[in-house]
Amino acid sequence: MSIVLQDLPIDQQQAVAHTRERVARLHAELPRNGLVVWTAGNVSERVPGLDLFVIKPSGVSYDELAADVMVVCTLEGTKIDDGTPQHLSPSSDTAAHAYVYRHMAHVGGVVHTHSTYATAWAARREPIPCVLTMMADEFGGDVPIGPFALIGDDSIGRGIVDTLRESNSPAVLMANHGPFTIGKDARAAVKAAVMVEEVARTIHISRQLGEPHPIAAADVASLHDRYQNAYGQPAGPTPTGETR
Ligand SMILES: O=C(CO)[C@@H](O)[C@H](O)COP(=O)(O)O
């Protein structure tokens, strides 16, 4: 039987509402950072404390994305009775996002784009080598390639999970498709999507000039540890109400 949002306890309804607001707001970061054309990207976030997540409706323009059209799904990827029109379908990548949430309990946010340089690396099925301190900081090593998988079932999600379980990276380039990123929340996953496109572009340019030099594994580990545990401001609310 379908879950009815309005029948949930008020505190759970409020948790869903806050997640919808965040996910709607974070979608604007995709065009703002040049990561998408048209509607070719999506963001989702797990609802804290509930076996639900929020994702954008499929094919809806980013300037039409508001909290009240964000679709609420179970971790199986099934839309609940969330107050949106019954015909409003969740993202075509919902199954992939749902698979990640079911199999990676620490993941609170998932993003998918077709950003140009990262997708170009995906087309070549070559991992992005860790030759920049920024890569060591954010990815803790190379950005891996995931298997080629067709949309429509758990294949993409399984490829994401199987690849990321073997890596420090919060980003995976699914072969011939494009980047999927994860994070503790949607904001962290959006950041990883921005950063993977940046390093894909920089290393592509570097390769036009010659062969980039790798960073020693011990230095990669040291840089990653510092950045993940000491960089920036202490955990807590950001000026815009996000959570660091
Ligand atoms: O790769 C694909 C479709 O092949 C998707 O990632 C779309 O590009 C975005 O789909 P929606 O989230 O709008 O359904």
UniProtKB/TrEMBL annotation:
GO terms for biological process: pentose catabolic process. GO terms for molecular function: aldehyde-lyase activity; L-ribulose-phosphate 4-epimerase activity; metal ion binding. Keywords: Metal-binding, Zinc. Residues 21-204 form the Class II aldolase/adducin N-terminal domain. GO terms for cellular component: cytosol. SMART domains: Aldolase_II (SM01007). InterPro entries: Aldolase_class_II_sugar_metab, Aldolase_II/adducin_N, Aldolase_II/adducin_N_sf. It comes from the Bacteria. Pfam families: Aldolase_II. Belongs to the aldolase class II family. AraD/FucA subfamily. This is L-ribulose-5-phosphate 4-epimerase.
